[in-house]
Write a structure and sequence with these properties.
mainly alpha, 3-stranded mixed sheet, 3 strands, 39% helix
Length: 118
């Protein structure tokens, strides 16, 4: 039986993990679709300390690189070619986390993490 653990990460910690490739976006996640208005509303909610939804991370125990690669969107596999496998897969909250990263991180880091090439 798997155990769920509530962990609190700061926005800075989450965006840093995302930028370093410690969080991977699995195949099941849709593309980023939020517009500027939606991003502003998220930031306003956080600033006012309103609930803004959960970000659910899964810490899988991969035994082989192939197991990991089966779960990652093909356009993002090149991000992990010369790096260790990420620690987490993002199961829920991709729109929120990507929106936060789009405001906090340099634009080229966000585009790269979404699967764009340098």
């Amino acid at each position: 039986m798997y155990k769920l653990t509530l962990t609190t990460f700061s926005v800075d910690k989450l965006t840093g993990m995302y930028a370093k490739g410690e969080i991977a976006i699995p195949e099941i996640q849709r593309d980023f679709v939020w517009d500027t208005k939606r991003i502003k509303l998220l930031l306003e909610s956080i600033q006012k300390d309103y609930p803004s939804g959960a970000i659910i991370l899964w810490e899988p125990q991969f035994k082989t690189r192939g197991e990991f690669e089966m779960l990652i969107r093909p356009e993002r596999l090149h991000l992990y070619k010369d790096k260790p496998m990420p620690q987490y897969l993002l199961l829920d909250g991709q729109q929120r986390l990507t929106a936060l990263c789009s405001v906090i991180l340099p634009a080229n880091e966000v585009m790269t993490s979404l699967g764009g090439r340098d």
